[in-house]
Design brief:
This protein has 335 residues and is of the alpha/beta class. It is 42% helix and 17% strand. Strands 11-8-7-6-5-4-3-12 form an eight-stranded parallel β-sheet. The longest helix has 18 residues, at 317-334. It starts with 5 loop residues before the first strand and ends with a helix. The structure holds glyoxylic acid and magnesium ion (MG). Mg(2+) binds at residues 156, 183.
């Protein structure tokens, strides 16, 4: 991953804008909090100590008549909590909704200096990112926000998937992207009523064996989109994430979905339920056995070139680079 990278802070007022570096942070789980519910807000200080990112959700799952209360609740939560090194994000309302503009105006005015990332739903093209980028630049200048607020896009429409490369490259403010399987399923006309995960009818039947029995292999509905998103993100030095997994009663399926995403290159996923925090932490931290093997490769090829055999497997410059990805992540987890 190319992070950290240089970043222009587009402040128009005061001293010349300094060049900044994006922080390299662990963001294994983006934990969703409904900020209009006081009982949930009360848990945030404890939560902040357990998760990598706390996100105040203003969009889907917040009833229309609670939108303003959610925005106000987020501001109260941000003002009254010390998040330390835990990230503080919002998921704003969609850009074509009646709430989007005021979400940004009010939140940046009140707590812009504490806000790390704005997650923008239903992004369809670079134009959506440009709009939020300019608005954030104006609001940062007006309210003297000292560090740039980053943008994270949700990839959850067919049009967005078509334009994924342009979205990833749309602004130096881009932090990353999450797959939104629920909205994407609807946008694509998929025949599902689920939030992520597999489908029992999406399968491949093996050839009939001797007695007429045949194997059944379920397929990953999200493989294609995750792969496209990972390539678009990594080609632009930003981070790819798997999004939500809605069946809280099936932790095994959640873990399997998160793990596929991790292996494919994603750095984290959303946790919508407290039980998913531990799953994400486990999945998106590298396995100790893998780390030990990666460190053996790095030690066996100190300058990263040549070829060696380890446990009967060939290692060369390319596997050295793979090992470095795992060892670097382990270092971040251990820090
Ligand atoms: C998330 O927002 C999704 O639609 O899956
Ligand atoms: Mg969605």
């Amino acid at each position: 991953m190319k992070l950290p990278r240089r970043f222009f802070q587009p402040l128009a007022v005061g001293a010349p804008a300094p060049l900044r570096e994006l922080p390299v942070r662990l963001e294994r789980m983006i934990h969703f909090v409904p900020p209009h519910v006081e009982k949930m807000r009360a848990k945030v200080p404890d939560l902040a100590a357990q998760v990598d990112v706390v996100l105040g959700n203003l969009e889907d799952a917040i009833p229309a008549d609670m939108k303003l209360e959610a925005r106000r609740g987020f501001i109260r939560m941000a003002e009254s909590t010390d998040f330390g090194s835990t990230g503080l994000w919002i998921r704003m309302n969609a850009l074509n909704s009646p709430w989007a503009l005021d979400d940004l105006l009010e939140i940046v005015a009140a707590v812009g200096s504490k806000l790390d990332v704005v997650m923008v739903p239903k992004v369809e093209g670079a134009w959506d990112i440009h709009y939020v980028d300019q608005l954030l630049a104006q609001l940062e200048a007006k309210h003297r926000v000292g560090k740039p607020i980053l943008i994270h896009a949700i990839l959850e429409t067919a049009e967005g998937v078509k334009n994924v490369d342009e979205i990833a490259a749309a602004s130096p403010r881009m932090h990353g992207m999450s797959l939104g399987p629920a909205d994407l399923a609807a946008s694509r006309g998929m025949k599902t009523t689920r939030v992520g995960g597999g489908h029992p009818e999406y399968k491949v039947l093996g050839d009939p064996a001797g007695g007429g029995t045949r194997s059944v292999a379920q397929q990953d509905l999200w493989h294609y989109t995750v792969a496209r998103m990972v390539d678009a993100c990594l080609a632009n030095g930003i981070k790819p994430f798997y999004g939500p997994f809605g069946d809280f009663s099936d932790p095994d399926a959640c873990e399997a979905q998160f793990r596929n995403a991790f292996i494919m290159g994603c750095v984290g996923a959303w946790s919508l339920h407290p039980s998913q925090i531990a799953i994400a932490k486990r999945v998106f931290s590298p396995d100790p056995g893998e780390v030990a093997f990666a460190r053996r490769i790095l030690a066996a090829m100190p300058d990263g070139t040549g070829a060696v055999m380890i446990d009967g497997k060939m290692q060369d410059d390319a596997t050295w680079k793979q090992a470095k990805v795992i060892a670097d992540l382990a270092k971040l987890v251990e820090a």
